[in-house]
């Protein structure tokens, strides 16, 4: 497949997002803050809805002044708060990224995870479907929605959904909610188009999430300590946040302006074989740390060993392709956190990373 000017390359240049009213859930989180900043740079009027950012180290605060025109700090489990915020924002595009996204936290508190990920999605879709000016709704779930048989085969959009652990099950259930809303409330002429985006394990600057691999490596490296690993030989579809956000925005634009599949995978082309141990070693090397890693002792909740997603449908539909191989992505992560530790203006650093990404040529056939 040849690559012309893609939807990603036109972000901020074709004028689609300029002045567009966007309602973004999860704007204080890692992917949400990057999405808000990119949308703001493209001229969108963004209303964010999320819990307050956690901890002294968080991406949203470091991007000050805030990357949202309006910020609503509230809980997705509060139907009135969600409905009221969406009614006031009168969005044309709804991007639902807000979630409880930590696998081990879902084991500790499954009720919170199901309430946030399932009923939170219900609340967003119920309010968004009633907005007459809404043109597109994008629900972000996860690569973990699939009924993973722990083979090394890359899953495709038509593979069966499942989820044995609480987090995966809650995100798979959110997909059922989206499918129900599409058929029951968004099938009439003039209704907003509803799509579901499934991305893999996302890396990038400004991620300090608890129980997440790269943030754990960064925290340990700052202290001069090794990072203990639960499953060093597990593989995940690692990808940089800019590749993922570019895909989300291209998908939302496609939903708003034409036809698009009901679900799309966003993943890397060739680096899904990177193990957890290889990721740790690569980030430590890029950061100048030589602390290494030991095995984490004790019993741990079960996790799948192999996970890989096939992004070819998104590539064909959106003319989108991942542009950053893992080593380039890891280098961006290390550079971002080095700048942060040196007290640099992180809004400027982050905007430059977005601009540099947009200036990259899309590789024909994916990342080599």
Structural overview:
With 368 residues, the chain is of the alpha/beta class. The strands form two sheets. Strands 3-2-1-4-5-6-9 form a seven-stranded parallel β-sheet, sandwiched between helices. The longest helix has 20 residues. It starts with 20 loop residues before the first strand and ends in a 9-residue tail after the last helix. The N terminus and C terminus are likely disordered.
Q: Can you lay out the helices and strands and say which pair or pack?
A:
Elements: E1 21-25, H1 30-41, E2 45-50, H2 59-62, E3 70-73, H3 79-89, E4 93-96, H4 103-108, H5 110-128, E5 136-140, H6 166-185, E6 193-199, E7 201-203, H7 213-223, E8 238-240, H8 241-257, E9 263-266, H9 276-287, H10 312-318, H11 326-341, H12 346-359
Parallel strand pairs: 1-2, 1-4, 2-3, 4-5, 5-6, 6-9, 7-8
Helix pairs in contact: 1-8, 3-5, 5-6, 7-9, 9-11, 11-12
Descriptive labels:
368 residues, alpha/beta, seven-stranded parallel sheet, two-stranded parallel ribbon, 40% helix, globular, disordered N terminus, disordered C terminus
What structural class results from the helix and strand content?
A: alpha/beta
Q: Estimate the helix proportion, in percent.
A: 40-55%
Determine Rg (CA atoms, Å).
19 Å
Mean pLDDT: 90
Question: What's the order of the H and E elements?
Answer: EHEHEHEHHEHEEHEHEHHHH
The major pleated sheet works out as: 7 strands, parallel
Low-confidence stretches: 1-9, 364-368
Strand content: 5-15%
Distance between the termini: 15 Å
Count the beta strands: 9
Physical arrangement of strands within the biggest beta sheet: 3-2-1-4-5-6-9
Total number of helical segments?
12
Shape: globular
């Amino acid at each position: 497949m040849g690559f012309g000017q893609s939807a990603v390359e036109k972000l901020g240049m074709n004028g689609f997002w300029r002045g567009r009213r966007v309602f973004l859930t999860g704007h204080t989180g890692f992917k949400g803050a990057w999405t808000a900043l990119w949308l703001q740079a493209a001229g969108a009027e963004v209303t964010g809805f999320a819990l307050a950012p956690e901890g002294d180290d968080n991406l949203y605060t470091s991007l000050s002044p805030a990357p949202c025109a309006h910020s609503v700090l509230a809980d997705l489990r509060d139907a009135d708060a969600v409905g009221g915020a969406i009614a006031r924002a009168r969005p044309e595009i709804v991007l639902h990224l807000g979630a409880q996204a930590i696998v081990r936290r879902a084991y500790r508190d499954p009720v919170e995870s199901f309430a946030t990920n399932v009923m939170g999605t219900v609340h967003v879709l119920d309010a968004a479907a009633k907005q007459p000016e809404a043109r597109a709704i994008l629900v972000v779930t996860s690569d973990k929605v699939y009924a993973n048989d722990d083979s090394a085969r890359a899953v495709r959009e038509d593979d069966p959904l499942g989820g044995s652990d609480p987090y995966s099950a809650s995100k798979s259930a959110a997909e059922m909610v989206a499918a129900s809303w599409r058929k029951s409330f968004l099938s009439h002429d003039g209704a907003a188009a509803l799509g579901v985006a499934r991305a893999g394990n996302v890396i990038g600057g400004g991620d300090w999430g608890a129980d997440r691999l790269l943030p754990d490596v960064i925290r340990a490296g700052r202290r001069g300590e090794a990072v203990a690993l639960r499953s060093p030989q597990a593989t995940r579809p690692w990808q940089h946040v800019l590749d993922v956000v570019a895909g989300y925005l291209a998908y939302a634009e496609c939903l708003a302006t034409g036809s698009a599949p009901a679900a799309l995978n966003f993943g890397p082309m060739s680096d899904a074989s990177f193990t957890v141990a290889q990721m740790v070693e690569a980030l430590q090397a890029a950061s100048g740390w030589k602390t290494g890693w030991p095995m984490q002792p004790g019993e741990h909740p079960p996790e799948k060993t192999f996970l890989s997603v096939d992004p070819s449908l998104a590539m064909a539909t959106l003319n989108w392709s991942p542009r950053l191989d893992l080593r380039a992505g890891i280098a961006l992560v290390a550079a971002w956190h080095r700048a942060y530790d040196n007290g640099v203006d992180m809004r400027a650093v982050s905007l430059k990373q977005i601009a540099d990404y947009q200036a990259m040529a899309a590789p024909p056939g994916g990342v080599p």
